[in-house]
Specification:
By secondary structure, the protein is an alpha+beta fold. The protein is built from 13 helices and 20 strands. Among the domains are: 40-61 and 187-293, 2-Layer Sandwich (Beta-Lactamase); 65-184, Beta-Lactamase, CATH 3.30.450; 423-579, Heat Shock Protein 90, CATH 3.30.565.10. The strands form 5 sheets. A 6-stranded antiparallel sheet has the order 7-6-13-12-11-10. Strands 2-1-5-4-3 form a 5-stranded antiparallel sheet, sandwiched between helices. The protein has a 5-stranded mixed sheet with strand order 15-17-18-20-19. The model is unreliable at 351-386, 407-412 and 414-431 (pLDDT under 50).
């Protein structure tokens, strides 16, 4: 073959190898980038669900407070006789005590005109007493539809808060006034501050009302129309806030709820994975902005792996081509030089083996380098995943991890509905779902929720469970009852050295008995007769509303059962009795 053709052939082969290498690196990078965005999107979606649950739990915890207090006779008396100074002073002190016990920020009472007659902050310079809040939507909603909920900046204190209101009616159904509880949500924001990413909670106007980054708060995600600004000024929703815009540019769509955006935030322009989740009940939207720090590493890893695979394939093809060429050369020499076959065979075989060995070593080196880079990143990711799953792995076999993840997904869905079943002692909840349940499985779900606390507090768990016991009821509401009983037992043992939680489930004639016993020292005899009364609690101020056992008692009664409290040798004993499910 002429020299110039040989050079041309070598250049062509090198060009093809480089072209294939570039194409493989580009395709691997695109694939890695897409996959990394999808993985971050899934993680962000899970985080948003947790944030949504924390907001829902906090609001639902106080949702029934104004409704319950609206039934109070002293509140109705003051609304009928607002000039009674003695009654007003007494009610101010009582609202102050109830607010401290509930852990809310302000409890206050408005008359029909929106004037504040009494408030828990009556001693403070920011007292609401005497102020008129008739312009607030939560007051107007309560008059129109009995209850209201609204987020706004306080016109008296200047502190943002979430307002829950409920109308106060006379015995004949006439409107007397409105009772309001204010939650400032600042503690919730402080809890979010340590979480990764930028969390934004925007209202129906697209204004950021909550954030784990203070500088992002009260910024508009979209341009506000003149009508919107007029409405906000009328109800003084954001007081004197300027509502600066938060510009963002769409860079790419990942799925229906996730986007790649460049945001011109307080810290300068940055690219974020923008994930959204709608809270329909409050017309809010949760936004989570995550910087994909590991995206570059993931793309680099995939590109190196693709380059290694392509180079290995290229060397393999070259090796095979060279081998075939050598075989043809040997055949030609054999035909032309029969007498030199014996002498040349050994040399050719030696040369061939050396060439094969060199090609193999080159391929092996490339493959080793590629595999080292390819394996490094997955190992790092697996180590991070193992850290997240350590709790499950420590409690069972490896196969349980998959089942544990499925259970966690189910538990997240179930937890969203737990607090929705909270009912006050003054109203009976409507008949709900009734299904055949294994009470042992419901108990196990409750224990799964409390597993971290049981481990952290070094609680010894003793169980005598008849797994065949079946009842009729609603699994979520029964689980709520069990969680209340278990939480109370753990709270009772908080100050003792020996913590033993004993659970017993057995048949008793046509009923089943579930006993929850703790080693916390028991309930004082003067308190035994009051544990199921609403708002009765022995916990320190701010650590409980005193509604848990009252709600549990009502749920059990609706299911045709009973709930009793007593003491045993080492602590308190709660006995849950439910009718057995009839034979199918």
């Amino acid at each position: 073959m002429p020299a110039f053709l040989l050079r041309y052939r070598v250049v062509l082969i090198v060009a093809l190898i480089l072209l294939g290498l570039s194409a493989s690196i580009w395709l691997a990078g695109r694939y890695a980038e897409r996959r990394a965005w999808e993985e971050r999107s899934g993680e962000a979606r899970g985080q948003l669900q947790l944030y949504a649950q924390s907001i829902h739990t906090l609001v639902e915890r106080f949702r029934s407070v104004p409704e319950v207090l609206a039934l109070d006779s002293d509140i109705k008396s003051l609304l009928r006789a607002p000039s009674d100074r003695l009654l007003r002073g007494r009610l101010n002190q009582r609202l102050e005590q109830l607010n401290a016990a509930a852990g809310s920020n302000v409890l206050y009472l408005l008359d029909q005109r929106g004037d504040t007659l009494a408030a828990s902050n009556w001693r403070d310079w920011t007292s609401f007493v005497g102020n008129n809040y008739a312009f607030r939507p939560y007051f107007q909603d309560a008059l129109r539809q009995s209850a209201g909920r609204y987020f706004a900046v306080g016109v008296t204190t200047g502190i943002p808060g979430y307002f829950l209101s409920h109308v106060v009616r006379d015995d004949d159904g006439g409107v007397l006034g409105v009772l309001v509880v204010k939650l400032e949500l600042e503690e919730l924001q402080r809890e979010w501050a340590a979480q990764p990413g930028v969390l934004l909670v925007a209202d129906s106007y697209g204004v950021v009302i909550l954030s784990n980054r203070p500088a992002w708060r009260f910024r508009a995600l979209q341009a506000l129309s003149d009508q919107d600004r007029a409405e906000l000024v009328e109800v003084r929703k954001y007081a004197e806030q300027a509502l600066q815009p938060l510009p963002s540019e769409l860079r790419g769509k990942i799925d229906t709820a996730a986007e790649w955006r460049r945001v011109s935030g307080p810290e300068g322009p940055r690219d974020y994975l923008w994930q959204s989740l709608t809270l329909a009940e409050d017309e809010w939207t949760l936004h989570l902005l995550v910087e994909p720090q590991t995206l570059v590493d993931s793309v680099r890893s995939y590109r190196l792996a693709a380059a290694g695979v392509w180079m290995t394939l290229a060397f393999l093809l070259l090796y095979l081509a060279q081998r075939r060429k050598n075989q043809r050369l040997q055949a030609g020499i054999r035909e032309r030089l029969e007498r030199e076959v014996t002498l040349r065979t050994a040399e050719l075989r030696e040369a061939q083996e050396g060439l094969v060995h060199a090609a193999k070593m080159a391929a092996l080196g490339q493959m080793s380098a590629a595999m080292a880079h390819e394996i490094n990143q997955p190992l790092t990711a697996m180590q991070m995943q193992l850290g997240s799953l350590r709790l499950l792995l420590d409690s069972g076999r490896q196969a349980d991890v998959r089942e544990g993840l499925q259970r966690i997904d189910g538990l997240l869905q179930r937890m969203a509905g737990l607090t929705g079943h909270l009912k006050t002692f003054a109203r009976k909840s409507p008949a709900g779902l009734s299904e055949r349940l294994r009470l042992s499985e419901v108990l196990e779900q409750a224990l799964q929720l409390l597993a971290p606390r049981l481990r952290n507090e070094d609680v010894e768990l003793r169980r005598e469970i008849d797994a065949s016991v079946q009842v009729l009821g609603d699994a979520i509401r029964l689980e709520q009852v069990l969680l209340n009983l278990l939480h109370n037992a753990l709270d009772a043992m908080a100050g003792v050295d020996k913590r033993v939680l004993s659970l017993s489930l057995q048949r008793d004639g046509e009923h089943c008995l579930l006993r929850v016993a703790d080693s916390g020292g028991g309930i004082a005899s003067e308190h035994l007769g009051h544990v199921f009364e609403p708002f009765f609690t022995t916990k320190p101020v701010g650590q409980g509303l005193g509604l848990g056992l009252a709600v549990s008692y009502g749920i059990v009664r609706e299911l045709g059962g009973s709930l009793e409290a007593a003491n045993h040798a080492e602590g308190a004993l709660f006995t849950l009795r439910l009718p057995l499910a009839p034979a199918p």
